[in-house]
Design a protein that fits this description.
Layout (H helix, E strand, L loop, with lengths): L1 H10 L1 H4 L7 H28 L4 E5 L24 E5 H10 L2 H22 L7 H18 L3 H16 L8 H10 L6 H25 L4 H16 L14 H16 L1 H12 L13 H21 L2 H4 L1
Antiparallel strand pairs: 1-2
Helix pairs in contact: 3-4, 3-5, 3-6, 3-7, 4-8, 5-6, 5-10, 5-11, 5-13, 6-9, 7-9, 9-10, 11-13
Amino acid sequence: MVLKRSLRALVLPHEAFDGWTPGPRVVVGIVVVVCLASGVSMTLAGDAVADEVEGTVAVDNPYGPPEGVCDGERASFYNCDAPETVDRSLGTAASNAVGGVTPRAALAPFAWMVLIAGLPVLVAGRAGRGDGDAIAAFRDGLGIAALAAVPGLLRYAARPIAVERVVADWTHPGTLDGVRTAAVSQLFPDGSLWLAVVTVSGVWTAAIVYGGVASAFDVGRGKAALIAAVAFVSTAASAALANGGWIGAPIGFGLLLVVGGIVGLLGAYTYSTVSKELELIGFGGSETVTPEPWYVGLHRAGALIGLAFGFVLVDGIAVV
């Protein structure tokens, strides 16, 4: 029954999500499968790129003696017989560079899902309510987002194929830094095949989000369309951006923002209450405070913005 309704949600989301969203087990299963598929897809694409890189390049020997020490009496204390240059494999450099993209590819779908799940908390009138209401809305939104991420499997299946077609005629640079940068760039293909797959999967994802939000949260078409537009842009923008929008920023910053955004989004009411009560310690009168809805909503909006930045910094735009 659950499987049948989940499959129905992929083609008739407005009807399937009427009074229903997938349970935690289904959501966790989808998250694992989609994230794993994304990571494997990027690994295969990276292997295709690295296999096309051959040759070596001479670089300064990092273990050689300091300059000038081999001219005096102390020469015997240093490795003055070491060669001035050593050969480094361009293929290894390319493999290491593309290998660094795989963890981002595995994490980006989850970051995307929680970002999309957080939007209904704001647009469905739950932003200023208690944390219980926000968590319930987030849980339903995560169920919708998880199923909406399934069309991404089309992109993950097509990426290695598109990359293999591109690198077949690729002439790689002859320097270590150059081949690292160029190898990562090849992971984000262009061309009609990739554009078609990205567009189709993005439209499909947006349709699931639109139908799910409109039905499960009983919001107007305008609000549902807004969330659907975010879903489409965040999954399809890579086809229109140079290098897919790759940033390459330290992944730790992005992960911190994603985790902090989730906590802030779901715990804004408790945080606002406790922080103000702590400020009142030592003062006379009641220390019980009730935050205004607009104040709680402001905190949740800030948390969602942080979550969005985290998604961008883990290179979600490029690899989701």
